[in-house]
Amino acid sequence: MRKLLACALFLTLAPVAWAQDIVIGQSVPLSGSNADIGRDMRDGALAIFNKVNASNQLGGRKIQLVTLDNANNRQRAAENSQQLVNQGALALFGYNSATNSVDALPLVAQNSMLFLAPFSGSLSLRNHPNVYTIRASYKDETLEILESKRAVGSNKAVVVYYDDEVGRSNYEAVAGTFADNGLERPRGVAVKRGGAAVNAAVVDAIAKDNPHYVLATTQFNVVGEFLKIANDKGVPIPVAALSFVNPDELVASVGDLARGTVVAQVMPSPRSSNQISVPLMKECAEALNTLNGARLNYTTLESCIAAKVLVEAIKKAGPQVTRASLLQAMGNLGRLDLKGFSLNFSNGQRHGSNWVELTILSRGNRFVQ
Fold it and tell me: What is the C-alpha separation between 71 and 99, in angstroms, rounded?
């Protein structure tokens, strides 16, 4: 009963409280197997928003980030988006995947809202006029992997993708990049999203044509399962993965088995030396430490950068910011030099970066360039 009363109180009071703030809505996993990623996505942004609020950079108004738990479930993500829109969020921000973002697209279109910085390079999001991104696309990442592999004579890949709408879109983006660069379209092997996606039959299907490498468009758990089973079967096929793979979680799940695995990164390395020498890294690391004492990683860095971009758009929208004015301001943001990472939203460009760097798991279970 106490919980029900608390929920009712929140739903009653939320619109009143929100009216005083610049409310930004976010839906990420705060429970389940991806909860660490979701918390990092929330906290990287909160660190910057808290700093902006404390220094009164927005003329007395404060940014309130309202983060709802989607448990990495598409239906819950859709419900969260509807709730955030209904309760007055000015923009949707920093969702954790394309799958958990696609159902929000009709809502932002109907309400003239900005959808900023989904943590995905999927083409299923990038053609929508209300979506602005701060990271490279999966096509950009694939091209970087393809060129690196081709330089050492590895041209034949099998693409592992999720057997759903977004997964198939990602496969087509990857396969199309191969074709655009004069290579045969790679064969695809589909796996189910969620649960134990890889078994011996899937590994056999991947290995059937003796590919030079596997190109994974999935989360880390699929890569980890493949590496474990392939190792047991004595099938040593190297893996290259798009940035959807969280490298820290991959190492935690399989350790040395992942050595030699290549993961594309769409943000510069948050290594300690950069946190000293690069102003952007230093600011993000210090803000995060002030928030919760955590160490900066790729996920919190990306969220920190996204938050800084949003703050610039809010400032450009002026003191009476609305959904429509914030969306328009984002379209007029132009070039941004964040002193460690640059973005360009000039001339109708809605995707601020195509920067990609490849990292490989080396000794000490660390991903290095």
Answer: 12
Whose CA is closest to 352, among 169, 140, 52?
Answer: 140
Contacting residues for 332 by C-beta, under 8 A, at least 6 apart: 316, 345
Q: Phi/psi of residue 346, each to 5°?
A: -80, 155
Is residue 164 located within the same domain as residue 258? Answer: yes
Please tell me the total count of domains within the chain: 2
166 and 257 fall within a common domain:
yes
Same domain, 166 and 21: no
Do 6 and 129 lie in a common domain? yes
Find the domain containing 211 and state its range. Answer: 138-265
Same domain, 250 and 148: yes
Are residues 125 and 158 both part of a single domain?
Answer: no
> Residue-wise pLDDT tens for the chain (369 aa)?
333 333 333 333 344 344 479 999 999 999 998 899 999 999 999 999 999 999 999 988 999 999 999 999 999 999 999 999 999 999 999 999 999 999 999 999 999 999 999 999 999 999 999 999 999 999 999 999 999 999 999 999 999 999 999 999 999 999 999 999 999 999 999 999 877 789 999 999 999 999 999 999 999 999 999 999 999 999 999 999 999 998 888 988 898 899 999 999 999 999 999 999 999 999 999 999 999 999 999 999 999 999 999 999 999 999 999 999 999 999 999 999 999 999 999 999 999 999 999 999 886 667 786
Look up the CATH number of the domain holding residue 259: 3.40.50.2300
Residue 158 bridge partners (DSSP): 187, 214
DSSP element (H, E) containing 138: helix 138-150
Based on the domain organization, do 216 and 229 belong to the same domain?
Answer: yes
pTM of the predicted model as reported, rounded to 2 decimal places? 0.91
Where on the phi/psi map is residue 261: left (φ > 0), alpha (ψ -120 to 50), or beta? Answer: beta
Looking at the structure, tell me whether residues 161 and 235 fall in a common domain: yes
In a domain, 362, yes or no: no
Of the candidates 80, 190, 177, which has an alpha carbon nearest to the alpha carbon of residue 138? Answer: 177
